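Protein modeling request. Please complete all fields; requests missing the sequence field cannot be processed.
Requester role: graduate student
Desired output: 3D structure, token encoding
Chains: 1
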Amino acid sequence: MENRIIGILPNKSLVEKVISVQKKRGINFPVYHMQTEDAVKLAREKVNEGAKVILSRGMTANYLKNNLDIPVIDIKYDFFHFANALKNALEINNEVALIGFIDAFRLAKRAVEYIEKEGQKIHIVILPDGSQIEANINSLHEMGINTFVGGNLVVSTARRLGLNHVLIEADERVIDEAITNALYELRIHIEREEKYELIKSIISNITNGIFAINKNGDLITANPIALKYIGINSINKSSYALDNIISSSKIMRTIENGELINGDLITINDNDLVISSSPIIVEGEIRGAVVTIQEISSIKELDTKIRKKQMHKGHVARKTFDDIIGISEVMKSCKSKAFRYSQVDSTVLIRGDTGTGKEIFAQSIHNASKRVSKPFVAINCAALPPNLLESELFGYVKGAFSGANYEGKAGIFELAHTGTIFLDEISEASLDVQARLLRVIQEKEIIRIGDDKVIPVDVRILSATNKDLIKEVFDKSFREDLYYRLSVLELQLPSLEKRKSDIPKLAEHLIDDICKKMSIGKVYITDEAIKILTEIKYEGNVRQLSNILERAFVISNFERIDEKCILEAVGAVNESKNATELFEATESITIAEMERMMIKRALRECGGNKTAAARKLGISLSTMWRKVGDMEETVS
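Delivered output (636 residues):
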């Protein structure tokens, strides 16, 4: 047993019996004959040498249990031991006394009831400890009792006083059982020790500080990093620094009521630290707390790495102000204002008709700002139903709703942390979503759907709309308080109608983009074609111009784009007409008619598939559905 089990027994006969059982079982551990205080002294020496479990008996076992922190296995008497001893004592005298401890004498009462007969008297005396044995024996002797039954201390005291005595003796059966219990306790201890060493190894290799305290706030264990933060060299040393951590944080709330503390900020020795704590609960009772410590700088570093990784997933702005084509004064003024807005962190509401380039301006503002290296996350508020939009914006925990991702999902506010979020078509957000958006702007924190934990976020919000939000506010379909929060700065983008002088440069730029996309060499556009483009009315703005050019590009068979290609692209071609007539025909076509022709043609080419047709025309699916609905109402 390598001295991990030792026997400390109060009488020699019991020592001999324990050694006999050991030989029969093929095991070996040291056994000593020692009583009470001397037994405690010896036990402490053996514990220092590695003893983990002690085998003992009666009052000596009680002394050991009260003075040691390791398991003490008591060789317990049973009913038959009491019965045999009492029977032998009654053969000496008809009146006897049975003396011992309460835990050993529960079975004694049954034995007395069974043994005691008429004319016989058995007194049971229960003692709290061994200090009153002699006084009780003398008192009973004065009452005329001369025979005493008990353990080794009772018998040795009665013998010294010259009185009759009978020892309650354990047999090999209960000794064998006690040894089995001792072996079991040793195995449990070894398993605990192995688990403790494993946990200790894990804790020591964790990059964060971690320590545990009991319910009094005393340090139980700590890894080296935690000791460094606390400012002590050993967990055996009390420290003002530890008291300072506990008093300046919310840790005691964890110990007092089991409250989980997450992200409590404190400063120790000029170090800014983040502390989290959770309760240690054993059998339903709070016994202390486990505390983790992190430096704020390391959290920021990790957060930066995560954000960079997310940027590689596509949360990045690719457009800059150089990508915005325009030489007109109105466009120059707009770009200049947008650049000034990029240098501050205020919210920006970008207003403009469909196709004026609101997202390009949003990306450009982000890329010219101090947040350029951080995420840029865009979402179209009109593209998703309200409940789905809410989950995309704010995220959700696992099991938040039917069909939710099992592991939960971070919302775009979390993904955009320290960067920029672009809310396109903000006017389409429901009032419920608007209310939550307002809270995010005011409090700079979000709560995932189905959760109650607050997550701080640092984002700059850019939003865009093609509607008159003031009118929406008057109509009660848009919150007034949210409008003023989103429009600290406003940027009105000009329609293409107001900057037609930009069309030549825009056309060349858009054709170059088409060539790159299709991996085709340079394709030129004639001056006549440009002239026709400048005469068309553009309700769809640059997006409409881009669609016309892409169709004209295909019609030209990837060669030179002339006026005939442009006219055919806008649906104004008729074989009976010459070029002049064709031009005149385009003037007679309203933009609404031209738009309907384009939508019908796209639907026809896509076999009626609205999603594909919307993609082909470069408009959102919601816009496609709205346009088709308007067409059907016009027909009816």
